[in-house]
Amino acid sequence: WEHSPIAGASRWDLYLYMGDDQVHWFSILNSLVIVLLLSGIVAMIMVRTLRRDLAEYNSVEEKEELLEESGWKLVHADVLRPPPLAAWLATTIGTGMQVLCMSFISIACAMLGFLSPANRGSMLTVSLLLFALMGVAAGYCAALAYKAFKGAQWKSLTLLTAFLFPGIVLGVMFVLNFFIWGQHSSGAVPFGTMFAVLCIWFLISFPLVWVGVWLGYRGTLKDPPVKTNMVPRVIPSQAWYLHPLFTMLIGGILPFGAVFIELYFIMSSIWLQRFYY
């Protein structure tokens, strides 16, 4: 033991110090500007389109000539049509809300000082417990979405919400952990910890998801703003640049470009064992 003049509350400053803070703040500003620019462009296009359509519909001279609906009114009776895989979509919505609530509460606890880097594994433990407890939010949001889609198989929805995405993540983790065990690495998760995670999943998360689904089905939904046609409207053939694969590629490049620099810092902090703010 050696005496140190540094106070105990400041001994972690060496590990929390970031030498490239100027580049980091520049990347945050860059991402924020890109997001605001893209949001402004999309909002401007939507406003101009709606104004043009409303001016066309409200013009007195053209009312008699518009024998058929045009523009966005062509699909107003089809936008609320339930999708083919309504349960899967509702499960995705519920799990997304579960992860979102877990992230917000974890970040809030870290900002308030409840989670300290001196306590190793505290963030991971709190995140796992919060994910299990937020099963209520997952079941509730999934049930509301599934009820809006006129779904009736609430038991299947409960099982999908409780086991689909958590099962995939835990399955991958267990398989990778078996390989780490095979290499006799000290970084392998012990069997007791794996059993504890399974107990949390089955004894806490699954019942809370069931409670959330039950509460969601008891809730009331607002009446839809428009009625849905019984016969779906025929979609004409689209141009090549309107194909779903091309639009997904173009639509994903811009958000990825906005978060790429931040993602670089996050991945560097993970692989280089550095703290990230």
Would you give an account of this structure?
The mean pLDDT is 81. With 277 residues, this protein is mainly α. It contains 8 helices and no strands. Helix 3 (86-111) crosses helix 4, helix 4 packs parallel to helix 7 and helix 5 packs across helix 6 (154-182). Helices cover 65% and strands 0% of the residues. It has helices spanning 13-16, 21-58, 86-111, 122-133, 135-148, 154-182, 191-218, 244-271.
List the SSEs and their pairings.
Elements: H1 13-16, H2 21-58, H3 86-111, H4 122-133, H5 135-148, H6 154-182, H7 191-218, H8 244-271
Helix pairs in contact: 2-8, 3-4, 3-5, 3-6, 4-7, 5-6, 5-7, 6-7
Q: Notable features of this structure?
A:
mainly alpha; 277 residues
Q: What would a concise description of this structure say?
A:
This protein is mostly helical and 277 residues long. Helices cover 65% and strands 0% of the residues.
